[in-house]
Design brief:
The protein folds into two domains: 219 residues, HUPs (Rossmann fold, 3-Layer(aba) Sandwich); 91 residues, Tyrosyl-Transfer RNA Synthetase (Orthogonal Bundle). 54% of the residues lie in helices and 6% in strands. The longest helix has 30 residues. By secondary structure, the chain is mainly alpha-helical. The structure holds tryptophan. Tryptophan binds next to strand 1 and helix 8.
């Protein structure tokens, strides 16, 4: 049997270039390699509500944005099933049974959830739904028997927790569920792209993202005002490339062809980095090159996105179709789960 791939994103904003190099690009490559049995991509709207329950309109609006981003990047609905989490009610039912297999202490130990709780300043008032989302994420993955989950680094604790739940379930009720494996980007610079301001992560609330939907002018403005090495004052000063977001972005995006086209002074990024590190390469030149690289990469995505955005009902038709298909698969797994637990009383 081939791989079953599943992954998804919370629709809380448009997707940015961190999502692109961290996961989207890999999904498209996997999709086009044809080396899988089934591929599912989920718009995790129900999960997005766990920390946006007071603002469902935000989630609703961003479902369209995320779906557009998927299609614009090259996810092809004839190869990958794109679906809406909330439509697949079976996921909720699976979650309910999995909840018995997880302790409160284990949920509270999940490092990603811990971090998010701190950021969101929930204090002592942590909503149960939020704390519970790693269990619901296990339902998302196992409902489709996914064994391959391409995600960003911050999702590793979720996959670990899913594996534990699968093992507990199979031990208790017999081999039913499949243990998933996370697939991270091979290029280390793609694991977590810093913000344009040098902060550790791109985040909408920090206003330090470059979005896939950004115009050419916005990209240029954001790149030209990026944070670099604060100690690289004169062009002649030696510079740091490892904590410098401009070079991290270049490591994630630039290839040798970009050098031939836009900066033939160097044959590759290593040469350019060496020059910056010994001194004599100015930030402006680095930024102009980065701008060219990003413009070349993002232009076709943006153009496709603008084209697709002219027919939003077609995007929702695609989502509806994918959601119906996903529901069938999840329903079949739910039946197996209930059979394994011997709680399928009427069958
Ligand atoms: N937690 C993921 C995010 O924040 C979204 C997600 C929900 C997901 N369910 C998933 C990712 C299942 C992979 C597999 O973006």
């Amino acid at each position: 049997m081939g791989n079953i791939i599943l992954t998804g994103d919370r629709p809380t904003g448009k997707l940015h270039i961190g999502h692109y190099v961290g996961s989207l690009k890999r999904r498209v490559e996997l999709q086009n390699s044809g080396d899988f049995e089934k591929m599912f991509i989920m718009v995790a709207d129900a999960q997005a509500l766990t920390d946006n329950f007071s603002n469902p309109a935000k989630v609703r609006e961003n479902i369209t944005e995320v779906a557009l981003d998927y299609l614009a990047c090259g996810i092809d609905p004839s190869k990958a099933t794109i679906f809406l989490q909330s439509y697949v009610a079976e996921l909720t039912e699976l979650t309910f049974y999995y909840m018995n297999l997880v302790t409160l202490a284990r949920l509270e130990r999940n490092p990603t959830v811990k971090n998010e709780i701190k950021q969101k300043a929930f204090g002592e008032s942590i909503p149960v739904g939020f704390l519970n989302y790693p269990i619901s994420q296990t339902a998302d993955i196992t409902a489709f028997k996914a064994n391959v989950v391409p995600v960003g680094e911050d999702q590793l604790p979720m996959i670990e927790q899913a594996r534990e739940i699968v093992r507990s379930f199979n031990n208790l009720y017999g081999e039913t569920l499949v243990e998933p494996k996370a697939v991270l980007p091979e290029n280390k610079s793609c694991l977590r792209l810093p913000g344009t301001d040098g902060m550790a992560k791109m985040s909408k609330s920090l206003g330090n993202c470059i979005y896939l939907a950004d115009s050419a002018d916005e990209i240029k403005r954001k790149v030209m005002s990026m944070y670099t090495d604060p100690n690289h004052i004169q062009v002649s000063d030696p510079g740091n490339t490892s904590n410098n977001p401009t070079f991290i972005y270049l490591s994630a995006f630039a290839n040798d062809g970009h050098f031939q086209r836009y900066l033939p002074d160097y044959t590759n990024l290593d040469e350019m980095k060496a020059h910056y590190e010994r001194g004599g390469l100015g930030d402006m030149k680095v930024k102009r090159f980065l701008n060219n690289v990003l413009q070349e990469t993002l232009e076709p995505i943006r153009t496709r996105r603008e084209e697709l955005a002219k027919d939003i009902p077609a995007v929702w038709d695609m989502l509806r179709e994918g959601s119906h298909k996903a529901k069938e698969t999840a329903a079949a797994t739910l039946t197996e789960v209930k059979n394994a637990m011997k709680i399928n009383y009427f069958d």
